[in-house]
Design goal:
single chain; mainly alpha; globular
């Protein structure tokens, strides 16, 4: 369990730092922004796999019509996570569509000089803004788990599960 917690914590930290860095395109430049965005897109897959048990059990609990409905906190967290997944998916797909460096390079083509599709650029920027808000809410609603995980990592309390 400690190994799993370590991986979750490291992965989540990398995703959070990556998301923060992605917000500063003027700081990183477009080339780094695009490659980091693709890397974050790839890192989301193990993030979802590590959370898969929670995703499946919560989905079953919410949609099974069970006699005891899921607590409000769980329903809000589920809706928040689903919204975050949708926004990140739109952000990644629109980022691929407006890519001027990384995607053309992977396709063996030269960089595209300022031929941005402004509709997709607007969708990408809007999804990015929503994603930033949703990540903040995601951190806030999972704050107790985060604090417990940090305490466990530092040896201040017994292991937590997720």
């Amino acid at each position: 369990m400690k190994s799993r917690l370590r991986w979750i914590f490291l992965l989540d930290t990398a995703l959070l730092l990556g998301a923060c860095i992605l917000q500063a395109v003027n700081f990183t430049g477009l080339i780094i922004h695009e490659w980091l965005g693709l890397a974050i897109g790839i890192l989301i897959i193990p993030h979802l796999l590590l959370a898969w048990t929670w995703i499946t059990t919560t989905t079953q609990r919410l949609f099974s019509g069970a006699a005891s409905p899921a607590p409000t906190h769980t329903r809000i967290n589920y809706l928040l996570n689903l919204s975050l997944f949708a926004c990140i998916t739109v952000q990644i797909l629109s980022g691929i569509l407006i890519s001027q460096h990384a995607v053309p390079w992977m396709m063996g083509k030269p960089a595209i000089a300022l031929t941005v599709n402004f509709a997709w650029d607007h969708i990408h920027t809007t999804a990015s803004d929503f994603t930033l808000v949703l990540i903040s809410l995601h951190l806030a609603i999972n704050w107790n788990w985060l604090v417990a995980a940090v305490r466990t990592k530092l040896g201040w309390q017994k292991a937590v599960t997720r």
